[in-house]
Amino acid sequence: MGVIIIKKGYYFIIVIAAAMLLISQTHVKESFGDQIFEAIGISPWTKSNQNGLHLPVILGIFLMIIGVAGSQRTLRNRHPKISRMILIGCIAFFFIFPFMTQGVMFAAKYNAADAASVQVTNAKCDFASNENKVTADCSFKIFNYGKAEEVVIHPVLPTNWHRNVDIDFGAITVTLDRHSKQNMTVRFNGTQNNGSGFTGWGQDIGMKVISTNRAKQ
Fold first, then answer.
1. 3 state SS for 21-76
2. Which run of H or of E encompasses 165?
3. How many Å from the N-terminal Cα to the C-terminal Cα in the chain?
4. Membrane-spanning regions, if any (predicted)?
5. What is the pLDDT of residues 106-135, one digit of tens each?
6. Residue 197 in 3-state DSSP?
7. Rounded Cα–Cα distance for residues 64 and 14 (Å)
8. For residue 205, which of 119, 121, 128 has the smallest C-alpha distance?
């Protein structure tokens, strides 16, 4: 009977691991739980534009509670310090996981040179305008997992941010180093379609990767 309880306790450890995957973030600060839900065709949010309830986090917290409570109940006699072990394990996992996802992407996309082999993250922009002409000085980090040498990008304002502002930004081409991550600051020019005088600062600005130029063989 004791052996059965111990085996059951290790199943709760698996539940904790599943919970951590659902609430963890990748190296580009994207929810891994969102990616899991989207891969199986389920929206991670109950409403559009990332509004409403965040289902992966809710499920992750629920599984974490079940996993921690169950492992403590079934493994406490064999491992008196199980709570401390779980806490240290969770902290270590959340610290290591972004490095794991970064390594996986560089390995999986090593020979690629398409738009999917480039990711832009941590974009922050300063906006200034002259009538309806807008400039955006944007800083961001760009991951080039493969062999692309150039990428064409332009900023996209979040759908839930400044909803009354409609700006078309022109795309620009930036040069990349192969298999690298680079910090860049670039100026984009755009046109405000509904009014004028848009100024300010914003973070979490989207950067759309339009195309890449394949490396020469």
1. HHHCECCCCCEHHHHHHHHCCCCCEEECCCEEEEHHHHHHHHHHHHHHHHHHHHHC
2. none
3. 64
4. 9-28, 53-70, 82-100
5. 999 999 999 999 999 989 999 998 888 999
6. coil
7. 10
8. 121
